[in-house]
Amino acid sequence: MSTVAFIGLGNMGGPMAVNLIKAGFTVRVFDLVPAAMQALAEQGALTATSACGAAAGSDIVVTMLPAGKHVRSLYVGDADNKGLIDVVGKGTLLIDCSTIDADSARFVANHAADKGLEFIDAPVSGGTAGAAAGTLTFICGGTDNAFEQAQGVLTAMGANIFHAGGPGAGQVAKICNNMLLSVLMVATSESLQMGVDHGLDPKVLSDIMKVSSGGNWTLDKYNPCPGVMESVPSSNDYQGGFMVDLMVKDLGLSQEAALLSNSSTPMGALARSLYVNHARKGNGKRDFSSIFEQFAPSSSE
Amino acid sequence: MSTVAFIGLGNMGGPMAVNLIKAGFTVRVFDLVPAAMQALAEQGALTATSACGAAAGSDIVVTMLPAGKHVRSLYVGDADNKGLIDVVGKGTLLIDCSTIDADSARFVANHAADKGLEFIDAPVSGGTAGAAAGTLTFICGGTDNAFEQAQGVLTAMGANIFHAGGPGAGQVAKICNNMLLSVLMVATSESLQMGVDHGLDPKVLSDIMKVSSGGNWTLDKYNPCPGVMESVPSSNDYQGGFMVDLMVKDLGLSQEAALLSNSSTPMGALARSLYVNHARKGNGKRDFSSIFEQFAPSSSE
Amino acid sequence: MSTVAFIGLGNMGGPMAVNLIKAGFTVRVFDLVPAAMQALAEQGALTATSACGAAAGSDIVVTMLPAGKHVRSLYVGDADNKGLIDVVGKGTLLIDCSTIDADSARFVANHAADKGLEFIDAPVSGGTAGAAAGTLTFICGGTDNAFEQAQGVLTAMGANIFHAGGPGAGQVAKICNNMLLSVLMVATSESLQMGVDHGLDPKVLSDIMKVSSGGNWTLDKYNPCPGVMESVPSSNDYQGGFMVDLMVKDLGLSQEAALLSNSSTPMGALARSLYVNHARKGNGKRDFSSIFEQFAPSSSE
Amino acid sequence: MSTVAFIGLGNMGGPMAVNLIKAGFTVRVFDLVPAAMQALAEQGALTATSACGAAAGSDIVVTMLPAGKHVRSLYVGDADNKGLIDVVGKGTLLIDCSTIDADSARFVANHAADKGLEFIDAPVSGGTAGAAAGTLTFICGGTDNAFEQAQGVLTAMGANIFHAGGPGAGQVAKICNNMLLSVLMVATSESLQMGVDHGLDPKVLSDIMKVSSGGNWTLDKYNPCPGVMESVPSSNDYQGGFMVDLMVKDLGLSQEAALLSNSSTPMGALARSLYVNHARKGNGKRDFSSIFEQFAPSSSE
């Protein structure tokens, strides 16, 4: 089995690395937080004293970081620091699982290509539950060859592995999807609330729409109206799930992408503004389906 | 078998009445256009010289009309004319299949109830193809008793029969659904085009999103991007299907409903404005998925 | 001097009628609330026992009512009640100062014309302060002749008298204006807050924009950002001024008008949704410039 | 009089530099296009063989460039090239008149400050006509001291000189203003067209709204409806004026700024989407008031 360097052991990265260990890979880890590394060591990982130290000599590098600037700087380095692409051996496959702007992904891919290395952008969805269960979805951008090579590692961590296109395409596809998701959530919320305002039962209305032409993922899996569906955040005071702050981040990335390509996204742009307002009213840490509350009368009304 | 009066024999009503005949009902028809009645007579319908003439003595009345004012006036009458509710016998079931404003549906239902009659608003979806095939979807508003009584007639014309709630609820549920559908269509269009603007293949992006959290009816059944899906209007120069003008009508009904209930529908309201602009640019008779073209560069660019 | 019947003596109508008395008109009043009539009687008005009683024999009728249905019913009557147009004498000028839907205004104007009477829709702006000071703005729809005849009465109550066009045009012009105003308020709020988010002083930014191409009425007279301008609602916790609930009403009228004429108003429709959400969060009785708070971080953030 | 280096002699920069010559400054110019320099030389400018050559030894540097990346690279340089801040003398005042992102302006200001130099971001409005006439508006960001020092040069080129705040504030204030302007234009267009759809005369409606609470710069100076106002682009088939492509650029900058500060700008974001769609339909080179046509029925309807 190959040796995998895993860098970035947060809420997502930690359990992902554990699944690699379980699948039999030799895993070398690095994180700026020592406790995060220690937790992985207890699961059988080898620890390194730097990202470059973990990467050097590994067959595959997997990274999970907060933002594009971290990814750029880690892989490409700067005047004072070497980047991962300066230290890994020929033939090492680079896989970044962070959700970042497409431009940064292409920037790193280009620098990697200059050194003869393959780089895949492979942002994930599925949340911390999916990371622990090994059922994440990966949406990948990169060459066919790199995508094929990555199968072993990715299937050890996820259940659905998509190939969206060349470098950067994974990031683009993910933010297209998440932008669309945000609109589905807002539009489903406003439609359900309008039905409720006219005296309809939201469960009955949901049941009708989900098998009609209004059918969408939020009605199937994640109804935003409290009480309609069990075991979703809306029935648990919007706790857990996918935080408003994370949706705001992804909508920000979608708008960055729209600016880059001079695209018009009236629905996605509106969703972003509504979500930013929602976050600014103190809802950033609640599940993103709580946008439903913006349409419902406040309890004090 | 019961006798059914069918009033309004247009592109939808005509084939619906034919399916009632095929199912064994005695069908009395009326339409202001003689040729429309003649066509039904050739299929075995009895013709009447007025709507009231068709309705009087029938067990069930089915109507299919263009707008709320027609439905109000036909059922309730005015200073000069009797309404259907003045001429039908005790126990006659009234079923209006028109897509109209909820207020008019409730108005007629109330007047019918004053005379001890049951009225169901049962707007349909499925288009002329569904009307001919007998596979329409009916979304009904009315009492449980009326809904049960209507089963025989509705299943002769449709495949899915929903009970949304009391009087008017059928209309509300239908426009909630169609408002949501319009947003799905616009948001899917802008997401796909943004992907294309970044070099992605719209078919690949569609395949990814439809099984991800962006999944929705338009990706499953009605992709708006030319060439992605066979046998849908987008692959046939947006001919056939559900016309922009009809979506504009339904979005108008949705905004009327939002005004009545003082509801906020930012996405639906925006979709209406975009569709009105689209219609004003000469696209009213094209399929509603042609809104995709608003996001794509014009061919001359 | 002429005799004027004034019907509807609320917060606006009361002081308007007082100004007619002060200007020397003989004023006959009616209101469903006896105390409202009593207050006018103390100012020198004659009281009537019904609206028709006040109108019969008057030279001019002025009405100030809440909604289109009241105006229709008062002027045109119904099966059980006579309307004002049935009881007034030949040559009586009818002036409705209510803010209502254009369709109702045209409906009454048509019925009046059938009886040979002139009807003017003359909605006002300027609020209760303008009503008391006699500085209201009237935006009138009606014939040139009727507009000329109305000058005496209107100038006794207002400072600016506009003639927007034929019957209904006063209502249309007013809601076009108020729809535009709502967008100015929202857009100015979001622009100022974005400046503040970047560290700019909102007063400095306001001073720059108001003399630049972003200049608009809200920057000149009604800055929504607390502390920028003295003696406006934003510097008094958004008390007083023009209530959110009234803006929601006017935006509802604007959307009714847009539906009637099949017009596209993306900005106005979005403003309505934002204002409805704002009202639903308990802000209905606050000044409409409080929409600014939707863009600012909540104090607890 | 001081010596001024002027770099970037395009449609705006050229006439601005001429006004400095006319005001008596010694002007050294540089542009990548030799003909542009030659034209200035004929007006009395000294030409340089590089930007650094023009700047070295000058008292003041003025730059007018297309985008943030050009400004960053010119002032700060890179691994291979010195920046202006490396070659100018102590006490040289740096003034960038480009319209760029605030982040780039702050980046350059910080680098300049590290070298003890004052940098002002001073984006302009007023177009090529204002540049030629010396009536531009400058919106400046920088220290009080720098702003004071810049007066002589700026008043030679413009009529209104605003101080918006510290470094970057000029750019922020300008895009706040232009974002607001874009919304004024769209909202005024939709309001006027809705009036027209109801049979109102757009000139009469404009006259009413411009002195009412809907009053704004576009009604005063730049009415978008053809025929209402003479000598504006709408009465000249939307030729001349401020191009749609430039408004799209500024709206892009406004959305970049909104992303940086996590601000919600629903109106500005919607305006951007509408303008991008408008540009994509082949209107990029027309005046930005041509957005009015999106709301009007097409001539063929």
Fill in the keyword field for this structure.
13% strand; 301 residues; 9 strands; N-(1-d-carboxylethyl)-l-norvaline Dehydrogenase, domain 2; homotetramer; 2 domains; alpha/beta; 13 helices; 3-hydroxyisobutyrate dehydrogenase (chains A, B, C, D); 3-stranded mixed beta sheet; Rossmann fold; 6-stranded parallel beta sheet; 50% helix; elongated
Account of the 3D structure:
- 4 copies of one chain form a homotetramer.
- Chain A has 2 domains: 3-165, 3-Layer(aba) Sandwich (Rossmann fold), CATH 3.40.50; 172-294, N-(1-d-carboxylethyl)-l-norvaline Dehydrogenase, domain 2, CATH 1.10.1040.
- Chain A has 301 residues and is of the alpha/beta class.
- In chain A, the strands form 2 sheets. The first copy, chain A, has a 6-stranded parallel β-sheet with strand order 3-2-1-4-5-6, sandwiched between helices. A 3-stranded mixed β-sheet of chain A has the order 7-8-9.
- In chain A, helix 12 runs antiparallel to helix 13 (266-283).
- The radius of gyration of chain A is 21 Å and the shape is elongated.
- Chain A contains 13 helices and 9 strands.
- Chain A has helices at 13-22, 34-42, 51-55, 68-76, 84-87, 102-114, 127-133, 144-157, 169-197, 202-210, 217-221, 244-260, 266-283, and strands at residues 3-7, 26-30, 46-47, 60-63, 93-96, 118-121, 124-125, 136-141, 158-165.
- Chain A is 50% helix and 13% strand.
- Chains in contact: A-B, A-C, A-D, B-C, B-D, C-D.
- Chains A and B meet through strand 9, helix 9, helix 10, helix 11 and helix 12 of A and strand 9, helix 9, helix 10, helix 11 and helix 12 of B.
- Chains A, B, C, D: Keywords: Branched-chain amino acid catabolism, NAD, Oxidoreductase.
- Chains A, B, C, D: It catalyses: 3-hydroxy-2-methylpropanoate + NAD(+) = 2-methyl-3-oxopropanoate + NADH + H(+).
